[in-house]
Amino acid sequence: MADNFEFADKGNKIIYETEAKGFNPGLIVLLVVGGLLLTFLVGNYVLYLYAQKTLPPRKKKPISKKKMKRERLKQGVSAPGE
């Protein structure tokens, strides 16, 4: 099918109407937003992998003396000094 349509106006003027060529603006916005989101997610994953390799493991919280005494009693070992 041809993209050109001819219409005769009052004064025998011929108007040519063609379909707009180019990208749909909605598609451009969708591609840009999708690309930024994908870049963000990939970047976070790469940083996560890097952090797993380089950072030392997290330290455990110190246990109070009271809790240590309770754990030893559960295991059947008497606490020192008692």
TrEMBL record:
Claim: Membrane is one of the keywords in the record: yes
UniProt entry tagged with the keyword Metal-binding: no
Family annotation (InterPro entries): S1FA_DNA-bd
Source taxonomy: Eukaryota, Viridiplantae, Streptophyta, Embryophyta, Tracheophyta
Record-annotated membrane-spanning stretches: 27-51
Localization of this protein: Nucleus
Listed Basic residues bias regions: 57-72
Keywords associated with the record: DNA-binding, Membrane, Nucleus, Repressor, Transcription, Transcription regulation, Transmembrane, Transmembrane helix
Top-rank taxon, per record: Eukaryota
Protein purpose: DNA-binding protein that specifically recognizes a negative element (S1F) within the RPS1 promoter.
Protein name in UniProt: DNA-binding protein S1FA-like
Stretch list, region Disordered: 57-82
Family assignment from sequence similarity: Belongs to the S1FA transcription factor family.
